[in-house]
Write a structure and sequence with these properties.
Layout lengths: L7 E12 L5 E25 L2 E13 L9 E4 L2 E11 L4 E8 L4
Antiparallel strand pairs: 1-2, 1-4, 2-3, 3-6, 4-5, 5-6
Length: about 110
């Protein structure tokens, strides 16, 4: 992976339950790392759901290998959260390709 192609910054986040001051469990996101990434694809697609047609943005990023990352994690790009829907290892732990989705129900 060439460093000059990784011209975007993304923040990887992991969710967990914490207990607030009232003793109620709440789900919150904590930053794992901010890493350089290469954007491979950016597109918008339309889904038909129960509430009608909705749009979702799909992003595909390549980044250096990051151990322990799963589809339960998410990333922030341009201040917006994207759910990781697919992870593909590139080479022998040379890198990871992430397919991400933002939109209703994502």
């Amino acid at each position: 992976m060439k460093a000059e192609k990784m011209d975007r910054k993304i923040t990887l986040q992991r969710g967990s339950y914490t207990v607030n001051e009232y003793g109620t469990p709440t789900y919150s996101w904590a930053d794992l790392a901010t890493v350089p990434a290469q954007m491979i694809q950016r597109s918008t697609t339309e889904f038909v759901r129960a509430q009608g047609a909705t749009e979702a943005e799909i992003l595909v990023f390549r980044l250096r290998y990051f151990a322990g990352l799963t589809t339960a994690d998410r990333l922030l790009f341009e201040g917006r959260p994207f759910n990781i829907t697919e992870l593909s290892e590139l080479g022998r732990k040379d890198g990871i390709e992430l397919r991400c989705l933002q939109g209703p129900g994502a």
